[in-house]
Amino acid sequence: MDIPTRVLVVYATENGSTGDVAHYIADKLRTGGFDVDVFRASTAPDPGSYEALVLGSAVRDGAWLPAARNYVRGNKEAIRHIDVWMFSVGTTAGLRGPLGRRAKAVVPRDIATLCAAVLPHDYRSFGGLVERSAMTFKERIAHLAAGGRYGDLRDWLAIGGWATEIANTVPRWQPFDVVRQRRSAAEVE
Fold first, then answer.
1. CA 6, CA 30: separation in Å to the nearest integer?
2. Among 39, 27, 55, 17, CA closest to 163
3. Where in this chain does the record put each Flavodoxin-like domain (predicted)?
4. How far is the CA of 121 from the CAs of 56, 83, 116, 124, in angstroms?
5. Under DSSP, is residue 80 helix (H, G, I), strand (E, B) or coil?
6. What pTM was computed for the model?
7. Would you give per-residue pLDDT tens digits along the chain (189 residues)?
């Protein structure tokens, strides 16, 4: 009997775009035979009962949203003992020109600090749904000055490819592990 490996997908979103990406990744992992649960960071369980964690957040002013940062801080001990992948969703993918190329090549300091604390297998940054109406006047000016554009900048092919990479990397449950655990428990008795 095969028991699927349990994967937890946790995300923080402002306008729903990151949630869409998280659910898409979860669907791809389910297709790969994994048992996947998806939660917003504010309501997500302790990741300790899962074999893997995919953690993502929208990016605001170069940082993850507070709910995602708080989830990492509140669960850092459990996170250290499982396989982790991290992703961000933001406006950077919509930037063009020299500023856009530079922004795409650099991981913002706050996000790099989180990655250093978690040590994920991989970190990816994806474009989001960039709506003019969701930005303040100041944000719109900065976005346009950096060569930004509006619209759905999510690259579903790239997101799906990354989910496939995760599926190919997450350790699969092995019946031998259960046998070994039962033997260890019997030796203790």
1. 10
2. 27
3. 7-178
4. 13, 7, 11, 10
5. coil
6. 0.84
7. 467 799 999 999 998 999 999 999 999 999 999 999 999 999 999 999 999 999 999 998 889 999 999 999 999 999 988 999 999 998 887 777 777 777 777 888 999 999 999 999 999 999 888 888 888 898 888 878 877 888 888 999 999 999 999 999 987 654 444 444 444 444 545
The pLDDT value given to residue 180: 42
Element (H, E) at 106: none
Burial of residue 170 (number of CB atoms within 10 Å: 0-12, 13-18, 19+) = buried
* Residue with tokens 């250290």, as numbered in its chain: 80
Residue type, 84: V
Domain boundaries, the chain: 6-188
Distance (Å, rounded) from C-alpha 142 to C-alpha 139? Answer: 5
122 with 163: CB under 8 angstroms? no
Give me the CATH topology for the region 6-188: Rossmann fold (3.40.50)
By residue count, the chain amounts to 189
**Is residue 70 within 8 Å of residue 76, measured between CB atoms?**
no
Distance between CA 124 and CA 64 in Å, rounded? Answer: 13
